């Protein structure tokens, strides 16, 4: 049953990625620079190492690096059928439960990692905005003004989503059912981890590197498609575009991430990099699906999930 489901999900994703835009994935792959493409694949692989660090750093109990790494890889398969990132969070929680950790601490570890990750994500966004020269000043240059309006539009979209959660009881109850069990006790778990600063620093470094490795992967994809952007500009486009696009309730944010990231890249780099974004999504979403499915099966066979 899992085999059939995995093949079907992969086929659907391939269709969606190939038809949501005018880009032909086959011609795209044939026309990219192989060196930069290889570096983008390295960046994607490094993101799973970072995710494993970011997960283990918030789990004081010993569960094994290999098992945790397989779970992060399996998340690439699970997120296709669970929009909003909840699939990966639930999978990590399930892994901890099967490792003998009580439900409260297990959910708190996952929630603590997510909270720290969110804070680091926002901090990196502010840092890279500063590097690009963006200043919230109405007398700034035209490019800064355009980027400022783009960021304001992003914030408006986030605000509208927040309003929707407030005024729509059904949507609010759904969100609370997903979020509250995974974030309850997170602060208490962080206080516990504060007594082990080395462990906590390991997790924070991992959470920091997740965004960096993905931004690097996107940067390499832009270079592979002939662009010559600044890394900071690409990082801003990724950090904002991924956050906005992931709010779209589709598997892995398909459609939303591509549109948001392409628009932001056009503003931050001055070039329409649709090809680069599609290549980025092919590498980060489709390429890990089969390894993720295999990892999921291995964990199930060893009763780790």
From TrEMBL:
Pfam families: LPG_synthase_TM. One of its GO terms (cellular component) is plasma membrane. It is found in: Cell membrane. It comes from the Bacteria. InterPro entries: L-PG_synthase/AglD. Its main location: membrane. It is a multi-pass membrane protein. The chain crosses the membrane at residues 37-58, 70-91, 111-134, 146-168, 200-219, 231-254, 274-299. Keywords: Cell membrane, Membrane, Transmembrane, Transmembrane helix. PANTHER family: UPF0104 MEMBRANE PROTEIN MJ1595 (PTHR39087:SF2). This is Flippase-like domain-containing protein. It comes from Kitasatospora acidiphila. The lineage of its organism: Bacteria, Bacillati, Actinomycetota, Actinomycetes, Kitasatosporales.
